[in-house]
Amino acid sequence: QVQLVESGGGLVQAGDSLRLSCAASGRSLSPYAVAWFRQAPGKEREFVTRITWSGRNTYYADSVKGRFTISRDNAKNTVALQMNSLKPEDTAVYHCATGTSPFSALGSATYEYDVWGQGTQVTVSS
Predict the structure, then answer these.
(1) Do residues 9 and 121 make contact, with C-beta atoms less than 8 angstroms apart?
(2) pLDDT of res. 1
(3) d(CA 21, CA 77)
(4) How does pLDDT run across 80-109, given as a tens digit for each residue?
(5) Distance between CA atoms of 11 and 62, rounded to whole angstroms?
């Protein structure tokens, strides 16, 4: 059974950068699509970005396009989320997620993902 652990969150000021990491244990992440979601207090969990199992394609929510970059390192069994030009509205708990069917395409809906990390808090002050 795969487990995901996020790290790299913290308290930063608007305009700063953070790099989140999602580390997998229990199996390789390489044949699986991976996504990042976030959930702010009182709001539903929302899609941020995803990367296909091949790594050739990435997708972003409009709110983060041009500021966030997702990437994967199969040798380290990790997926990273580089966040630049952070805004107060980026404040949320960030979760990485993956599926259980290898070489499958996953979209931007939470129900498509079977395995979730516990999340890491990102707080952006103005």
Answers:
(1) yes
(2) 83
(3) 10
(4) 999 999 999 999 999 999 999 999 999 999
(5) 23
